[in-house]
Amino acid sequence: MLDSNSTVSLLLAEDEPTAMKNLVATFSSPRYKLTCATDGNSALKKALAMTEPYIAVLDWLMPEVTGLQICAVLRSPKIKIRPYLIMVSARSTPSDIAKALDAGADDFLVKPFRPAELQARLRVAERTLNYQSELREQLNELEDLRKRYRLIADIMASQGGGRAAMGRGRLQTSSTPVEPLLDINSIDFASMAEAAASGTTPKETPKIAKITTAEVDGIMIKLIAQQGFGKVGAIARIRGELYPQAQFTAWGGMLLEEGNDRTWVDILLEVDSSAMGMIFEQSLGRLPESEEERKAFLASTQMVVISGFKTAFENNGAAVMAPFLSRVVSSKECNTFSEGERETYRYALAGGSVGITIVRQKCPILFEPVIQLKVADVSAQDYPPAQGLEVPMIMKSTIITERYIRKFESLDESSEKPLAVPIYRASLMAVYFSQLHQR
Fold this sequence. Notes:
This protein has helices spanning about 15-25, 40-50, 65-75, 95-105, 115-160, 190-200, 215-225, 275-285, 290-315, 400-415, 430-435; strands spanning about 10-15, 30-35, 55-60, 85-90, 105-110, 170-175, 230-240, 250-260, 260-270, 320, 325-330, 340-350, 350-360, 365-370, 380, 420-425. It folds into 3 domains: about 10-135, Rossmann fold, CATH 3.40.50; about 170-365, Chemotaxis protein chec; about 365-430, Molybdopterin biosynthesis moea protein, domain 2 (Alpha-Beta Complex), CATH 3.90.105. It is α/β, with parallel strands linked by helices. The protein has 11 helices and 16 strands. About 40% of the residues lie in helices and about 20% in strands.
């Protein structure tokens, strides 16, 4: 997604040297990543080689291939990256403009034009690319959900709706001790030393965010029954330390509200390489076909886990928001950070192990000026507060995107007093996982 600080990829196609010189001068800024072409053939080749969303300013009449022909090619359904196309030409009749737009141009600018006008058209193009980017992200999330629900349906069909597995979901305790491995790079030794020297202890977790060992065990038993993992036994319960890096890590986050208490909770489901293939095969009766399918399967499993924790927290009296879609990464991609109070549970399966890590931290409502808003902040209230039949611009628990920030900027400019937007600032882990799928 393009934001106010990102670089805009811009293709300039113009065969007249003076006109090209003027275009380059207009956009000679670090803001723009320029690609130039002086004939239609090279312009088309460079356009097809683009690997990210871009804007193209195309002259109509160029040697070899015309701007109209380039538009027609770039609007083919086979083209994965859809650019924003601005046609420039000395032609100015209504029929010429209509012909360019029908060929696939998004905008038309008559020569000669002022640089300020072209720059304004590019700002429109950037907004359009941002909308397209947000739409792609939403479509990707819908596709992720489709894959997850399809796998859940396959699991239910394989397990007879989960009833056949209910008798196998009994927790057994093992006396075998297991030493947790630590990710040294994720430990804040300076803070640990300072706390040890001062004799301080972490601040007490709000009551609504606490969960008992029996409740976590219950969530695991439900998971075993619903997903058909087979027999499970407790190896060890580890408190206050990081769970060892597994082959796959699924993340889900939620915000708990009760009275004046606000707590952000990150939940990690970590599966080692032995357990991953085994639980997939037990659940679906076949081996996974790709790493993508493994991740989709673990994401569907994490949905069951998050649902279990949501119910447990609600039973403790909390209102629960889960604005982000859960994400899965391989361990080599994973960064779980070192913030918050941690509690880790590890469970044995036949031939592997599964871990659940709960990370809690206080998450108060912040009333931030617009300039301090960040992508992935979460709206804490409907805003602006609805009056009469008015509809708020943003609803509570909505994830703030660049588009919302621009809306707030516009609203702030027209307001007599500076805005103070109520938001929750999600954990670093939540921001990391929510943005990882965009890369």
